[in-house]
Here is the input.
Amino acid sequence: MPMASSDKPTRQTGKNRAFRQSLGHAVDGLKALYRYERNFRKHLLVGSLAIVAGVILRLTLNEWLWLTLAIFLVLIAETLNTIVEAVVDLVVGQTYHDLAKRAKDVAAGGVLLAALFAVVVGCLVMLPALSRWF
Ligand SMILES: Nc1ncnc2c1ncn2[C@@H]1O[C@H](COP(=O)(O)OP(=O)(O)OP(=O)(O)O)[C@@H](O)[C@H]1O
Here is the structure.
């Protein structure tokens, strides 16, 4: 999905000079993810619900580690997918290209792998926690 090219009104193309400036651009990246990527918002919502469930079910430290790893892996995979989509669109625009399709499909496959891992972790963590709760 093409993103707007005017996200950065400053139009900076050179290196960042300060940590605060780098951090600002990283936060802009997260805002763009949230604003333009529907799947990122969905994964963020599911991850947040899993955290609420984890608090209610009083997960152990070990369970929290696995759960947060799974949540962040999905969000990072979605970030990489968005990068690939943006770069492919930048290079080929609306033109069909087999390599563009491969790049986008592989990036989407990476998100699917991370999501499957999250489902496995969710089941392995939540089921024992649920059985402790009842
Ligand atoms: N330039 C292109 N050339 C060939 N195939 C393309 C091209 N652009 C997109 N596609 C195909 O269309 C699919 C959807 O591409 P699109 O850029 O719309 O992703 P998207 O729907 O935003 O993905 P996501 O669901 O991850 O947000 C890609 O996975 C790919 O198979």
